[in-house]
Amino acid sequence: MTETHDAIVIGAGFSGLAILHHLREIGLDTVVLDAQDGVGGTWLANRYPGVRTDSEYSYYSFSFSKEVREEWTWTQRYPAGAEVLAYLNFVADRLDLRRDIRLETRVESAVYDEAANTWTVYVDGGAPLVAKYLISGMGVLSQAIYPDIPGIDSFAGEKHHTAHWPRDGVDLAGKRVGLIGLGASGIQLVPEIGPQVGEFVVFQRTPNFIVESTNDAVTAEDMAWLRDNYDAIYEKAANHPFGVAMEPAQFSALEVSDERRREIFEGKWNEGGFHFANECFNDLATNHAASELASEFIRAKIREIVRDPATADLLSPKTYSFNGKRVPTGHGYYEAFNLDHVRLVDTATTPITAITPTGVRVGDTEYELDVLIFATGFDAMTGTLTNIDIVGREGITLRDRWERDGLRSHLGIGVHGFPNFFMSLGPQTPYSNLVVPIQLGAQWLQRALRWARENDVDVFEASLESEDWWAEETARTGKATVMYTEGKKAKAWFLGENVPGKPEAFLVYMGGGQVYQHYCRELEESGYASMLAERRVPEALSS
Ligand code: NAP
């Protein structure tokens, strides 16, 4: 007998847990499927040494559950991955979510049945499941990618990707270790494993602007303050363009004296992490000259911290400016290059030519290694959705739809041709601390599906016009930022530039999380007008 539910959610990370809780609250029979053997999503998969949040504990958590707020205690300002994983397990237990979560259940495809207005979800090694609503909570940076380097499979030593780090860890003590990839993942790994390994060869193609931070302990007073102010903190984060509980800066980097600018940069550098990016000036993301001033400040910091001038110079990005890549928070990244056995190899001037059974060849020089680590990133935002067959009306997959028509969604929530399919953090949702749009998105979905039931609406489906509008709005706002010009130079994942052959498009909405929420509210207040199906097949697809 076919197992039927009201809703099937794919993914048991932050998104899946929030959605399950909110759909249960309105009485929808919901099941969550996840390929991994535990809840936690990205925090279960990414268990590499040094993994931790780049957002601070106070706004990197849900605010919707009084029990969770009152009973969970954070210990670090930037919680380690293991702590976030423990938090998500706590949420799953405290909200009694596990009874509706099916682990080690890999979804292979999901097919819409037009006559029945249902989705059939096919899983690896089990019977198909059927539901009216299909919801993706598969995460935005989950489809890990390896570089296209000749000989990659020939390496005879241990080879690991940060996104598939072995559960029992990797013994790196005293070994010759190589690392390819210096985005937010690689830069967290460097200071953590640097002191343990025998020799450390860090292959750098493009340097990053790392904003260093300290990781203080969260005290009992801090937690009491958080519990007293949770709603205000959450509201602040929800009203901030990037979903952080910070005051957006009010003036331009170009309108103050050099001395005052230095003081402000210095102050926010000392506060650490995203404070620097968000609280110094209001135009570091929108004005190239301002972003270049921030770049120069960080380059000077690198020269101060790193003792060897040649290494400091190599670590300083020169081909693009601040915000051209997603800015990572560092914890002793630059200091790690002061260790004698840590060696930075520039692969921009002389590229990696091959991976051999014994190591990595750069030009004609071979670096012999016992362990090779890839922190080479993800097929971001769309990768997880196009990696499985999500088959909508007329038998068209989401992959084909986007290949033929370009990236299309309505607010990153729905796609024309895919009725009653919803995405948490779909492509074209905000570039943000993601817990905020996840929670607000789950609450939006709860209200939408309750409204559908109350109004006898059977089908939600984004209109073609709404997709065109959102594609234009995403491109327009994105192109007004330095993330466009600088991101192209830096081959940023948010433009799809990090995946060979992926069409360039803003994969995230750069117009601000608070603006995005305004549009979501407008859609709701309109009675979901642009999501009530006009049942026609896009011309591009019917031909
Ligand atoms: P990433 O930012 O895409 O960085 C990938 C790195 O791999 C880059 O340094 C890239 O070099 C390098 N690379 C890729 N292919 C290469 C090749 N063929 N040869 C040499 N180098 C190559 O990936 P990530 O570090 O995993 O981070 C992705 C995103 O995940 C982050 O931006 C962030 O949003 C999220 N994340 C968040 C946290 C956190 O919040 N704590 C932690 C980790 C990740 P090039 O720059 O030269 O292309």
Automatic annotation (TrEMBL):
Keywords assigned by UniProt, alphabetized: FAD, Flavoprotein, Monooxygenase, NADP, Oxidoreductase
GO MF terms, alphabetically ordered: flavin adenine dinucleotide binding; N,N-dimethylaniline monooxygenase activity; NADP binding
The keyword Iron-sulfur appears for this protein: no
Signal sequence extent: none
Name of one Pfam family that matches: FMO-like
Keyword Iron: no
Cofactor(s) this protein requires: FAD
SUPFAM superfamilies, alphabetized: FAD/NAD(P)-binding domain, Nucleotide-binding domain
PANTHER family: L-ORNITHINE N(5)-MONOOXYGENASE-RELATED
Protein name: Cation diffusion facilitator CzcD-associated flavoprotein CzcO
Species whose genome carries this gene: Mycolicibacterium fluoranthenivorans
